[in-house]
Amino acid sequence: MSNLLQLPIVLAVFQWGAGWLLKRYPKFPNQAIPVATYVLALFGYALVPAPVNAASTLAGMLGSGGSVFAMALLQNLMVTGSHGTWKNTVFPAVQSVLGMFFKPKA
Q1: What is the pLDDT of residues 57-95, one digit of tens each?
Q2: Confidence of residue 100 (pLDDT cuts 50, 70, 90)
Q3: How many domains, in total, are found in the chain?
Q4: Which of 2, 6, 40, 105 is most open to solvent, judged by the fewest CB atoms within 10 Å of its CB?
Q5: Which domain covers residue 71, as residue numbers?
Q6: CA distances from 11 to 17, 27, 50, 87, 89 (A)
Q7: Stretch 24-35: mean pLDDT, rounded?
Q8: Which of 19, 25, 27 is nearest to 81 (CA)?
Q9: 22 and 80 in contact (C-beta within 8 Å)?
């Protein structure tokens, strides 16, 4: 189980879930959701042992830019980008295509 929690995709699922919950809390501003998910990514990378987290894995390739802060930012940008791509591109396209096949009968 601890190996599963060390995967960046698991952290991404937690970030998507946290963003979803924060979106449903009306007093939390939408502009602050990426900041909150970034903080979650920082905690995730800080809590995972250094030999297995993505920051230390990619540090050799990125040089000094492979810090926990940079990797958490990269993680957050990927999570935010995949959410936006799904919400604004993929979901409307799938909905449109399915709408052509399942039109309500008039």
Answers
A1: 555 555 555 577 777 788 888 888 888 888 888 888 998
A2: confident
A3: 1
A4: 105
A5: 4-101
A6: 10, 25, 15, 20, 23
A7: 91
A8: 19
A9: no
Does any domain span residue 33? yes
pLDDT of residue 28: 92
Higher pLDDT, 12 or 22: 22
Residue 57 domain-assigned (yes or no): yes
| Inter-residue contact 55 to 82 (CB < 8 Å) | no
- In a domain? residue 106: no
DSSP H or E stretch at residue 79: helix 68-85
d(CA 30, CA 74): 20
CA distance 72 to 46: 9
Residues 6 or more apart whose CB falls under 8 angstroms from that of 38 comprise: 72, 73, 76
Query: Mind giving me the DSSP string for 3-30?
Result: TGGGSHHHHHHHHHHHHHHHHH-TTS-G
Domain contains 61: yes
Rounded to an integer, the average pLDDT of 6-11 is 72
